[in-house]
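Dear U.,

For the methods section draft, I wanted the exact inputs and outputs in one place so we can describe them consistently. I've listed the two proteins in the order they'll appear in the manuscript figures. Please don't edit the token lines directly; just add comments below if something needs changing.

First protein:
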Amino acid sequence: MFTSWADLKNEMLNDMASGSWKIKSYATADGLRFEYRDFNDFRRALDYVTAMAEQEAGTTPLITQVAGRARR
């Protein structure tokens, strides 16, 4: 379980680099869970987590894209 989006992003990047991203899931402290079956699912989850980490750090506006739709 991760307490910050930045920590989750770093763990996902490390898993991608080591090849251990396959058949995995991640959970955040607020109960959000990411599960995926293939690299495309993993990549979409990583894109979302990256956007949330940037928002958490105050480096991006409060707009994220989920499944091709912008949400505020």
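Second protein (the one for the lower panel):
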Amino acid sequence: MTAQTPTEALPEPKRRLALLPSGAGPAASYLLASRGLRAFGDGLVSLLLPAYLAALGFNAFEIGIFATATLSGSAALTLGVGAIAHRFSRRSLLIAAAGLMILTGFAFALVHDFWPLLVVAFVGTLNPSSGDVSVFLPLEHAELAHSVTDRDRTALFARYSVVGSLIGAVGALAAGAPDLLRQLVGLEIKQALQLAFLLYALLGVGALFLYRRLPDESIDASAAPAEPLRKSRTIVLTLAALFSLTLAAACLASPHALADGVDRALDAFHRTCLAQGPDFERTIALAKTRGWTPLSDGTDLAPIEDMKVFRGWQATGADLPAGTMIAVTRATMDGRTVQTCSVKLLDVDRAEFEKRFFVRTDAEKIAEKRKGSVISRLFILIVGNRRQLVHLTSAGVQGSAIIASSIVDE
């Protein structure tokens, strides 16, 4: 492949201080700029995507499904574009990809249901890691190769990679901005995270305008198709295999894959008590179905002393952390009959549990009580258009366990 000779060149004294190598044409600057915009967006949403999905009420397994959909969708789209790319100009394909990036950002900000979001994750351009694994990468690489002389091609690709890595890191650092907005402006965490996806869409708008400035090469319909790889086939397949292994390792280390004990504990509380609210009869039926062992004495799980009825179990299951205890009560609080649902979780960091609980629910703390090393906090929140009180208490030796309880009017 012979690269086109760039039509413009900057004076040599300025080139020494420029980002681009001397053999690069104007198109290279647009591609590096667009790479920077996309890298910032990828670094930002790669960290915020699991937090946002958790705030929408999805559990760790469902978040993993979204991560799988983004990766498999990117792979399918890249293969599809590779099969038809010879029929279109690289400029038009990049513009179309930028349009898809814009739609992806708006869709994630506005759509909240599982199946529509899953379709967007598969079809869209979101990455589950800050590395670029989308359809943009091969298209920009092909355009870069045609925007620089043979001598400076390696230098330009090195700059392209550095820009992506550095600005991607800045994007990851900016992932703390939604929490700052929540504290400074008073936005709900879900709204602050939605703003991040709107920013992702705006970055796509910026990339689109940059792609529009690329030269529009003509497509020769009568040209013979490119010959298949021959001598370089082994090298290309080896590099592809190495890239696949690198990507697999990156995804295993991504926030989506790091579903630690705190995530499992919070999922257990959310599924058992919070998502549908306490339900005495439903929980008893669940315990019978799953064969949970009744507790002989588990009244310490009850958040309200004035109990009418108590049921507790040593709960087991693949979806529950080891040693989980679950209890439901009917009780009286301030003259009202209420139902409670409690989950006792072992070896859980209380501060981290509370932090992630805030991200998911945007709860408001209304009371706190301390007795020695034991800390009890009471929160109010709305789940499924229903007002609930949540009582979080540290328990066990040195607070090594946590009791999370939900309270609703009967």
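Candidate sentences for the figure legend, describing the second protein: The chain has two domains: 12-216+230-252, 261-409. The radius of gyration is 27 Å.

Thanks,
Y.
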